[in-house]
């Protein structure tokens, strides 16, 4: 399971805790659910559980502490999923910003005077850029390539977004799928398709 694509696990999905003796101390152990096991240890999926010590050898005391410590482990499972999703979101955002900038530059938008794509840029400048790219996208759509070409290019984009494919390489592969279409070069055609894909997943 890819956490970014499938259901994020919640506490109702986590195994119940167990108390075990480890090196003379009682610990609370929770098995790591298989779908998120790769998020722990070295990332090879071989780390099977998380443990927290009760700090005691008394079974009664350990039993009283069990669920408090189990909840701490559950929070670790939650955070691991949040962290990986954030990394993927950051990578997707960086990919999108780079693609938009590359497309705008290739179209010589505003004679090459491109606005910076950040929160410091006035909204009106960003909207002008968006409107211009939407206009070009409309022209591109009216002269759409055969479905099999678009689907092949979009698969490259989706693979890059979902699997962490290198953005530069992904765009090169997408560009190679297109020939020169209408008023757009292969590079521009691929970038327009990529930008359209970002719109569908935002």
What does this 3D model show about the protein?
- This protein is 55% helix and 10% strand.
- Helix 1 runs antiparallel to helix 5 and helix 3 runs antiparallel to helix 4.
- The chain folds into two domains: 76 residues, no CATH class; 95 residues, no CATH class.
- The protein is mainly α and 202 residues long.
- The chain contains five helices and three strands, in the order βββααααα.
- The longest helix is centred in the middle third of the chain and has 48 residues.
- The chain has a three-stranded antiparallel β-sheet with strand order 1-2-3.
- A hairpin with a 2-residue loop joins strand 1 and strand 2.
- The N terminus is likely disordered.
Summarize the entry for a quick read.
The chain has 202 residues and is mainly alpha-helical. The chain is built from 5 helices and 3 strands, in the order E-E-E-H-H-H-H-H.
For this entry, give a set of tags.
3 strands, 10% strand, disordered N terminus, mainly alpha, 2 domains, 55% helix, 202 residues, single chain, three-stranded antiparallel beta sheet
């Amino acid at each position: 399971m890819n956490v970014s694509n499938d259901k994020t696990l919640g506490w109702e999905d986590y195994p119940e805790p167990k108390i075990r003796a480890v090196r003379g101390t009682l610990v609370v152990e929770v098995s790591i659910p298989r779908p998120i096991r790769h998020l722990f240890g070295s990332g090879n999926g071989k780390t099977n559980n998380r443990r927290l010590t009760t700090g005691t050898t008394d079974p009664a005391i350990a039993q009283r502490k069990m669920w408090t410590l189990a909840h701490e482990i559950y929070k670790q499972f939650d955070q691991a999923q949040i962290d990986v999703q954030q990394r993927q979101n950051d990578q997707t955002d960086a990919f999108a910003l780079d693609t938009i900038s590359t497309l705008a530059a290739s179209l010589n938008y505003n004679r090459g005077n491109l606005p910076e794509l950040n929160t410091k840029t006035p909204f009106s400048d960003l909207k002008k850029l968006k409107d211009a790219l939407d206009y070009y996208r409309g022209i591109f759509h009216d002269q759409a390539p055969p479905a099999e070409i678009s689907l092949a290019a979009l698969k490259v984009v989706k693979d890059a977004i979902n699997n962490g494919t290198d953005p530069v390489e992904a765009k090169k592969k997408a560009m190679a799928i297109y020939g020169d279409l209408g008023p757009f070069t292969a590079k521009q055609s691929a970038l327009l398709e990529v930008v359209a894909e970002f719109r569908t997943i935002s």
